[in-house]
Each structure stands twice: as structure tokens, then as C-alpha cells.
């Protein structure tokens, strides 16, 4: 069915409105609609149901992601570090400023603070947080890396402040 026949079947404005509604929904969810669906009396209900289903399926709390990273084999470069189960000691690798190290296939988790508050200084911008994370990744993976995960968590001490986390793996 081509676009001309679709427009001839329903009024131009009705079709355009339906298409505008459908494109965002179909782009982000697994809902399939066609022109025959637009003729059904509960078409709007189907769209709303589809959007609600997509919202529920796409929710993945940052706490869950943070726990997955903490439980994975990534070495944490922030906080207390990673618990060595054999010794019971928390370890965090430290690199000297300007030094370039490389640990092939080793996974790390790093974070940087940033702020989205209206009065935040440029030094607290997400752009600088990303740059600092890239510098940290270069210190640990001088021959390259791949970013395995990225997420943000709210800073509980200041509303509007966040931590940007990267989980990355050094190139082989």
C-alpha cells in the first residue's frame, strides 16, 4: 500500500495526525500498527496501551545498573574500590598523573560528578565530567578501550547533582 492510497482512504489531516502519533510510538516500541488499525474504534486505546507497555519495558533503575556493575568483575576506580574476596581488603588501582598504563581485557568502573543546577559552574558541567572520564580511561587503557556501559545516579547530598558512571574494558 503506497502513501497516496493511504491519504485517499482517510482525510489528509486525520492521516497526518495519526502518522505523527504512530512514528514516535513505533520507533521506540514493538507495537505494529497499519492503516486498518486507524479505522478501529479503539485505536487511541491501543496506542496508549502500547506506550504504557514501552515505558514499563524500558525502565531500568540506575540502582539496579550500579549493583550489576558492582557485582561484575569490573574494578571500581572510585569510592572504597573493589573488595578482594581472598584478602577481604578493598582495593582501588591508583595511577600517577600523566602515566599511561594498559591492562588488556580488564574491566573498570569509573565515575565523575556533574551538576545540572541552573547556577552550576562550568567546572561542574557534564562536558568536563566526560573529559575527565576519558582521561581516566586513557590512564588505565593506553592502547584503547570500549565503553561497556554508561549511566547516571543522583547525588543524594545535593539536588541537581549527579554521578556519571562508565564501565569500560581495555583493548586486547
Fold topology:
Elements: H1 3-9, H2 12-28, H3 35-38, H4 43-58, H5 62-71, E1 75-76, E2 82-84, E3 89-91, E4 107-115, H6 126-140, E5 145-154, E6 161-170
Parallel strand pairs: 1-4
Antiparallel strand pairs: 2-3, 4-6, 5-6
How would you describe what is shown here?
The chain is of the alpha+beta class. It folds into two domains: 3-58, no CATH class; 62-170, no CATH class. Helices cover 40% and strands 22% of the residues. The chain has six helices and six strands, in the order αααααββββαββ. It has a four-stranded mixed sheet, sandwiched between helices. Strands 2-3 form a two-stranded antiparallel sheet. β5 (145-154) and β6 form a beta hairpin. α2 runs parallel beside α4. The chain is elongated. Mean pLDDT is 76; it is low at 12-17 and 24-29.
